[in-house]
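Researcher: Good morning. I'm working through a list of sequences from a screen, and I'd like to move beyond sequence-only analysis. For each chain I'm collecting a predicted structure so we can compare shapes side by side. This is the next one on the list. No need for commentary yet; just the structure.
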Amino acid sequence: MYPCVSLLLLLMGRGVLSQEVKVCSKTVINSCSDCIKSGAYCVWCKQLNFTKPGEQEAARCDTWAQLVDRGCMEGDIISPNNIINLSTNSALSNIALDKEEPIQLRPQEVNLKLRPGLPKTFKLDFQRVEGYPVDLYYLMDLSYSMEDDLRSIKTLGNELFNALQGITKKGQIGFGSFVDKTVLPFTNTNPEKLNKPCAETERYCQPAFGYRHVLSMTENKAEFEHEVNKQSISGNLDSPEGTLDAIMQAAVCGHRIGWRNSSTRLIVLTTDDGFHMAGDGKLAGILEPNDERCYMDNNLYSKSNEMDYPSVGQVANQLEKNNIQPIFAVTKNMEKVYRRLSSKVTMTHDALPDNVRVTYTPLCPEGGPSRDKGVCNNVGVGQMVSFNITVTADECMDSAMSFLIGPLGMKDKLKVILSTRCKCECDEPVMVDPQYCNGKGQVNCGMCSCNGGFVGQKCECSIGEKDESSLRAACQKDNGTECEGRGDCVCGICQCYALQGGSTYYGTHCECENESCEKFQNKLCGGNGKCRCKNCECNPGYEGTACQCKKSNEQCRTPSGSVCSNRGTCQCNQCKCIEGYQRPYCLTCPACQTPCITKGKCIECLGFQTGPFSKNCSQACKSINEFKMVETLPPGKPCDVRDVENCRVFFTIKQLDGEDNYTAQILKTRECPELPNIYAIVGGSIASVAVIGILILLLIKVLFHMKDRKEYLKFMKDAQKTRWSENKNPIFKEATTTVSNPTFTGE
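Model: Good morning. Structure tokens for this chain:
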């Protein structure tokens, strides 16, 4: 045998009841109904004249204890108990048993009318009756890995039927089997392998399939044994199986399975491996999500290869919706498994209305703490167990709504009809003085409901063309809380509340009171002054925020006799220096800029009548109330500053008592740079220009000479290469001309 594997698909409830503190957290309260809606423990006092003159009617809303302490009669308090109506359709002894369908759950209907936020607890009894109908569907894994266990599974199926018949005479059993989707990569799609997905040596092997419904619910033992015994193994490729596909179809195909309406429904699954879940179908290109509907054709899941696997949540939803309890178990003695299952009672609910919470407290030895499900173990046939069921509605509901509570896997259900009570039903005294509301309204829940144009505690304010909001705005300081939350706005005027010490708030907006000033030695204002609008006004001779100090300045006096160097005030015999200066006497200011820098221009002005302040030196430099021109400065590093002539002016400066009060010593002699020789500079400049000019001319002359020489040499070179012709020019005539006389003879 292989070990028992147990898996229970649980559904979460809608919340856990938190411990309530009896506090009334009031919001905007204008009526009794507003009060009831504002908090679970808010109650309303309808007593006439309960509120003080000018006090808002919201003061009628508080916890029971607070209202009683303030003088409200208990009979005039509209409390949670008065607006919660708990009713059941019948008592335990008045429920008649249907002989065909015995009732195991009492009561079967509860009508709750709840205050928002206030929990209500009632008792639910369950008694498992003998012979209650049970439908059990046996779901077998026939993948090849189950080959070694097939004989055991068949035997367990037969033993399971025998155990079922031994426990109830109205038991029925059905049967189905599964492997996996017949597509790659889950199953080998070779035609031969689809027909015989087992090993070659396996003699009995049925074709691959997803889920097959084999036998509908029956009481026929022989038929069940026959169908179980003729089952043979099949196969797939991977380890996870199509378990969730099979459970989903067994849950939603009730007309095929044969689930009865009045039975306890069980699915017992035998498998040796894990299961595929939603999203795994994408490995085979299956993208269509599971739609949680029945697809059965010739007892086969017809859309096994078209739809993805369902998710665990989808399976859990359908199991709960169809009142089916799953058992993932294989064990040697199935009768013990069933008996253990049948002895466990799990009380739960279906979908709750919005903003509703339910918790269960089992009243049984092994029940456990309060939670969103109630569990009792080892409950025998005929034994009664009870559960305290607490229901809380967190908000007001527009109309009545209902939900069901019942044991998991059983048809018996308690119907809870739930509504909320968010309105006050006030019974006023028969005789009320018409003038109670000044004849301008009527009494409703102890307060005046004014006619149009009138407001106020007793309709005493005529608002005319104004509205109530404009009157209330006059009671708000800087658009803040009305009368600072310390008074009531009556006709646009704040009427301030009293304090515990006996005094009252005061001021235009009740902003002042005389009881919260600072204390010293547990005494208001140290017992040495009076509290005025949160500040202490000290008696003569005392000072401090709490008048805790006697006036004295002994510890604040400097050697010069000044108090805090005139750079602070003496408070409680200690200097409180102005910003930057340090105690004990406010002498130094590490963060302040040195006067060597800040007073440099004034030193130039006072000592040498130059610089930017020279025209109004006495006014601009009055912080230096004394200065001396000296031949030498005292030892030490002096200050220096450059004046407008770029001379260095040396001086010392000392701060006197006060924030901007100095005395200075200025050295008569300035340190100025020597003036340059103008004539030498001018003569040198002229000589330099002349020399440079001559050099430039010489350079030009040399350049021209070199260029001419280069041209001459080139000409001579070209002339040597020329050959001249000696022929006479025909137009050339010599300078000498000879003339002959023809008649002349030499004789």
